[in-house]
Amino acid sequence: MVSLMLDERSKQILYAIIESYIDKPEPVGSRFVTKKYPFGFSSATIRNIMADLEEFGFLSQPHTSAGRIPTDKGYRFYVDSISGTDINKGFVRERMDKASYLHYDDSLGDMVCQFTKKLGRIKNDMNAMFSEVINTLSSMSNYVSVALPPKTEKTTFNRIDLIRYKDNKAVAILLTNEGVIKNKVLKIDASLAQEDINSIADYLNSEYAGHTLDEIRGSLVKRMKQEKLLWDEVIAKAIKICEQALLFTSEDIFVSGLYDVINLPDFSNILRIKQIAKAIKDKHLILRLLDEFSDAEGVQVLIGSEHHYEELNGLSVVASPYKEGDRPMGVIALIGPTRMNYPKAIYMVDRIAKCISKTLSD
């Protein structure tokens, strides 16, 4: 276990260096730690501990004469120390009496409370709801915020309307209980009249209201296999339309805060700005990233080199799924530099994910 390498003094020094560097991105020296934090250790002791921490891989030294900065391994140790504490009370607040380094912002709780009330008022408008989510996250954190809204196949079917369009096409308009509205053009048999496809829509609406689209598709496939020999040509056409109508791809994604994050000192280099801008604009990349968290429990943190996306090199991700009852529905996340205020980011993502879950469940 890595934690067995470090005694309590080493942990205190590591936390001090990490949180000092998060507060101000400059290498941290032993003299700075001695002056700022009342640990009661001599400067020589702190230097020796810092050298040990570097040897263990928790810190690195950019230049021989410079102080130390955290490595991904150091940040991971720090983040793992947060887990197991009560996020809602705040990791930093827990150590206030032990020369805490980052200040826990009491206003965050008030802002989250106001956010929850606002979310309840706009919950029937999914676009407005998730625009509010990402704008709130990015403005409170100064990081990029992203949200994957409820996947269509996970939402609960309310009704579908089918409208004949041209000779061999129809438009399907799908409404879910969560307020998601989707529409698409389907291929149909030219011999089907509007009243025929109305009957198909009526069948779906009466038979499947209240079921998820995944459940409905599974049921249709099962019925088709069980009764295939008994179905006539008209029924086969109807099932084909049903399958097309319920096959929606969810590639919507909400993003906010790119201009906030590039103002951080971590992105003073134009190449770094181009890197994060290109990564965030790659919808498929962000979709793949968020999808990895869709079945997770609680807040997840990926630090720098821990993820396998080269485009996000040097960035950290704090993400959490949200649910409707016990059903995973989507994911929200913050993306920022590895020099991230992890306690604050974890607190915000956790609380707002829970707000969304409560709103959807209510």
Structure report:
The longest helix is centred in the last third of the chain and has 20 residues, at 342-361. The model is unreliable at 85-104 (pLDDT under 50). The protein contains 14 helices and ten strands. Strand 1 and strand 2 form a beta hairpin. Helices cover 47% and strands 17% of the residues. The protein has three domains: 2-97, Orthogonal Bundle (Arc Repressor Mutant, subunit A), CATH 1.10.10; 107-150 and 252-361, Beta-Lactamase, CATH 3.30.450.40; 153-245, Enolase-like, domain 1 (2-Layer Sandwich), CATH 3.30.390. It is of the alpha+beta class.
Q: What's the CATH class of the largest domain, please? A: Alpha Beta
**Count of the separate structural domains:** 3
Residues in helix, %: 40-55%
Number of extended strands: 10
N/C terminus separation: 43 Å
Extract low-pLDDT stretches: 85-104
Q: What do we call the CATH topology of the largest domain?
A: Beta-Lactamase
Helix count equals: 14
